[in-house]
Amino acid sequence: MKKIKEYGLITLGVFLVAISVTFFLKPNNIAAGGTTGIAIIINSFFPALSVGLLMLIMEIFLYIIAFIVIGNKFGAKTIYAGLMLAGIVGVLEKINPNNHAVTNDLFLAAIFGIFISAIGMAIVFNQNASTGGTDILAKILNKFFHLDIGKALLIVDFIVTLFAAASFGIEIGMYALFCVIINGFMIDYVIEGLNMSKQILIISKNYKDISKYIINDLNRGCTVFTGTGVYTNSSGYVLYTVLNRKEFIKLKNYIKEVDRRAFITVSDAHEVLGEGFKDIVGEN
């Protein structure tokens, strides 16, 4: 069941990226890095070769090179995502044979295209996968030139945007570079939102009832600390737990019922790893 959910989310993420490519970026010649950007550039010179087909050819070629040069470091989910992206783009191109764009305004196309793409990529990354392509080229640069992966990714995408500028003009090339820069920030922002949890400290005389509710009803763990109030000089217990937003609302409503004088502090946890949340070591 877990695998079905993971691959379902990867498929959803890839579908969003494909929507962005087919209806926003490609019709406006915005080659925003990666194998997608390369495919858009090649397609402009050889229209008979669809973007989806070009992406599929490049993905297969790059995976073969990766296995030869850097070994088997790309998991099944990454291979699935890369090939699925090429396949979905190919299908959408059949649905949109006239290369119709949702908008021909370059600014709007860049903003909405990269927004939709970033959400899709974040969903894929959040499942410990990627769409391959640029990642593979970056890892090859890392192996032979000892560049950091982040810098290698930026170099690859920057080179693609230079070719975009040479092919479609400086203005479109600048939009492509703008998309490359914004995309990274947006992906990080969306991933933080997807993984956001609440870490909660509770001081209450009814800590036993609250802890039982957390364990039995919310199916979460909690930790109890002993503490002493400096102002009152009285000892008590402090509960610590981490919950998602929905669970926190349930807990807050429960605490209202059992102890209206409870003291609660809540802060955002941008990422939580461990039992009940995201695995510390995820597989690709």
The gist of it:
This protein is α+β, with helices and mostly antiparallel strands.
Keywords, separated by commas or semicolons:
284 residues; alpha+beta; Alpha-Beta Plaits; four-stranded antiparallel sheet; 10% strand; elongated
How would you portray this structure in words?
It is a multi-pass membrane protein. Keywords: Cell membrane, Membrane, Transmembrane, Transmembrane helix. It is found in: Cell membrane. It comes from Clostridium oceanicum. The protein is an alpha+beta fold. The chain folds into 2 domains: 193 residues, no CATH class; 74 residues, Alpha-Beta Plaits (2-Layer Sandwich). Helices cover 63% and strands 10% of the residues. The chain is built from 10 helices and 4 strands. Strands 2-3-1-4 form a 4-stranded antiparallel sheet. Strand 2 and strand 3 form a beta hairpin. Helix 2 packs across helix 3, helix 5 runs parallel beside helix 8 and helix 7 packs antiparallel against helix 8. It is elongated, with a radius of gyration of 24 Å.
Map the helices and strands.
Blueprint: H1 2-25, H2 34-45, H3 51-69, H4 76-95, H5 106-125, H6 134-145, H7 149-168, H8 170-195, E1 197-203, H9 207-217, E2 223-228, E3 235-243, H10 245-258, E4 263-269
Antiparallel strand pairs: 1-3, 1-4, 2-3
Number of helices: 10
Q: Percentage of helical residues?
A: 55-70%
Mean pLDDT: 86
Class per helix and strand makeup? alpha+beta
Number of domains: 2
The percent range for strand residues is 5-15%
Unreliable stretches covering 5 or more consecutive residues: none
Per DSSP E runs of 2 or more residues, the count of β-strands stands at 4
Order of helices and strands: HHHHHHHHEHEEHE
Distance between the termini: 17 Å
Assembly level: single chain
Strand order of the largest sheet: 2-3-1-4
Shape descriptor reads: elongated
Using only CA atoms, what is the Rg? 24 Å
Q: Biggest β-sheet, characterized?
A: 4 strands, antiparallel
